[in-house]
Give the backbone structure.
Amino acid sequence: MPDESQANKRPATRRSHKKTRTGCVQCKQRRVKCDEQKPTCGNCIKREQSCSLQFVVPNLPYSRPPAQKPNLAPTSASSSRTQSPVALAPNILPQPASPSPALASPASTSTQPPGLTFSVEDMELLHHYTVSTSLTFSTRSDVLEVYRLAAPEIAFSDPPLMNGLLAISGLHRAHCCSDIEKRRLYSTIAAAHQNIALGAFRERLSNLTRENCPGVFLFSAWLTLYVLGSMHRLQSADPDAASVIDFEDPSEWIRLMRGVPSILRQSAVWSWIRESPLRPILEPGLVTDEPLSPELERRFATLRRALIDEPLPVSTPDAPQMDEEECKVYAESLAMLQKYTAFILRPSTPEGPLDLVGTTMIWPNIVPDRWVDYLGQHRPGALVMLAQFAVLVNNLRGFWWAKGWGQGLVVIAWKLLPPEWKSLVEEPAERVGCTLGAV
């Protein structure tokens, strides 16, 4: 007869934990539980890496006046709701955790909305923007004057744009700080302002007008640089952390910055910007076809042969070989990359000197969505093109937001490529000064 006490015992079960879909991208990729502490979760702090939660930081109390009406206070549901930046692609513009009615409105007025104030700390960032940050957006003096003078003037009557201005200034301050605590503080401040601006501009995209499109245009330009600057290891105490990029998905940074430029390419919007004080940013005009040098012709002929004409085999286990659709996407993307490479390396024309920053960052914003998907899947063809683009990005290494990007993109492509593809990355590595043998 069986022991009654043994029969009544229930089998032991594992203690479950509350599942969440709002953890950071880095923890999801490593398949570990995220504590969701903002702006950087505990796991990312231990690993001294950037955390995607910095893009969803709730509003900081000092940047808002004391709430006078109950309906302006964030609810527990809204304040705890977050989204990872990659999950938002291709829209990329998340709603703020708890926007005020003034910031959520897409309309831009000439007077400051009632109840909206900025703190002394914010004024410090505004000052830093005008004397320092605004001088890091272009290689042309006339464009820098637009960012230094016209942009703040527009932002004074456009509160969400002011948040965007303070965000990029705060991120710049974080890069300038050698003290780790101050660096983390300014990173948090920047993320909070960016979160407010992102939500407001997402709503505005569905109602673009002549009056509000300059603000959208400026914010889209800052968004690109903010994404690049936020991918550095700002949470690390390493003195060189602000020059080391930190991400595991090579498509993550491209997904974050895409979305707005396609809207700005509409003919009406283009005309509105050309009639605004922001006109110099668009000069000297559209990118034109330029003749290739013999060296460039050889480089792109090699790429066309490996990616399109005679595609190299893919030896990665369980990975499909390149099909006709993939080759077609690569052909379109490579043609764009060749055009922009030739244009960027051309001599200055009577139309004026080239804005190296603006022209370089166009390509990742206009490549087909499928190319970005292939990059996220670590397809060799997309990785090889990423390494070629890194050569252009490396020309911007003197800017704080671009430090380390040329070498970093080449390294990640090298690590992910199968052996038979690695030779296609050796030339880009040499051009950006990267020693692959040490990787």
About this structure: Confidence is low (pLDDT under 50) at residues 13-17, 55-115. Residues 78 and 97 are 6 Å apart (CA to CA). The two ends are 67 Å apart (CA to CA). The chain has two domains: 56-66+81-282, 294-438.
